[in-house]
Write a structure and sequence with these properties.
Layout: E1 12-14, E2 24-26, H1 38-48, E3 56-59, H2 66-73, E4 78-83, H3 86-99, E5 104-108, H4 111-116, E6 123-128, H5 138-148, E7 149-159, H6 165-168, E8 173-181, E9 184-191
Parallel strand pairs: 3-4, 3-6, 4-5, 6-7
Antiparallel strand pairs: 1-2, 7-9, 8-9
């Protein structure tokens, strides 16, 4: 019997665009680690317009760092990557040092708590790719992201299911773009306009 495709984490992923295009990022075989596939990252950055020059970004569940480093590769001025797992945070730090990524900061800790501390920060992009088995993280992460992102900012959400407009509206968010790829549901969210 053949093994199920994607049953295990791939050994590496690559940055798909920008100044570090084709840079390999190691993917250790760790429980719950599921890097965003290249195709999905490529689509996300097509949605965002490729050039993120000057953007302020936060990757809340960094994992391998693929999403946040992809943003930095495309010109983001500041990228904060937060990862709970100490070994993964060290690995991202080593990659960022190797790339001489001066605008990249890596922190170990609770990504949702750190995002909540940035309420009103006016971030241009918040990247949310929580572990799929951690359902309790999704709503607090989306609530914190809605408070931290600028009125014109974007929130990327990767989840094991599609989030409907009815589920997003009470959080002050709406879905602008959507893609299903395998088990991943990719959403590009924006804040709902505030009635004056």
């Amino acid at each position: 019997m053949k093994p199920t495709p994607h049953a295990r984490a791939p050994g590496e992923v690559r940055i798909v665009g920008g100044q570090w295009k084709r840079t390999r990022l190691p993917v250790p075989d760790r429980p719950g680690l599921r890097p965003t596939p290249d195709r999905v990252r490529e689509t996300l950055f097509n949605w965002l317009g490729q050039d993120l020059t000057g953007w302020r970004c936060m990757d809340v569940f960094a994992g391998t760092g693929a999403l946040g480093l992809e943003a930095a590769s495309r010109g983001a001025a500041e990228v904060l990557l937060v990862e709970h797992d100490g070994a993964l945070a060290q690995q991202i730090t080593r990659v960022a040092e190797r790339l001489q990524a001066s605008g990249v900061t890596v922190r170990r800790g609770d990504g949702v708590a750190q995002l909540a501390q940035r309420a009103g920060a006016g971030l241009d992009l918040v990247l949310l790719d929580p572990p799929f088995d951690a359902q309790a993280l999704f709503i607090p992460a989306l609530q914190a992201a809605a408070r931290a992102v600028a009125p014109s900012g974007r929130i990327y959400l990767e989840a094991p299911r599609r989030w409907s407009q009815e589920q997003l509206a009470p959080l002050g968010l709406t879905c602008q773009r959507y893609l299903k790829a395998g088990a991943s549901h990719a959403h590009l969210l924006v804040r709902l306009p505030v009635d004056s």
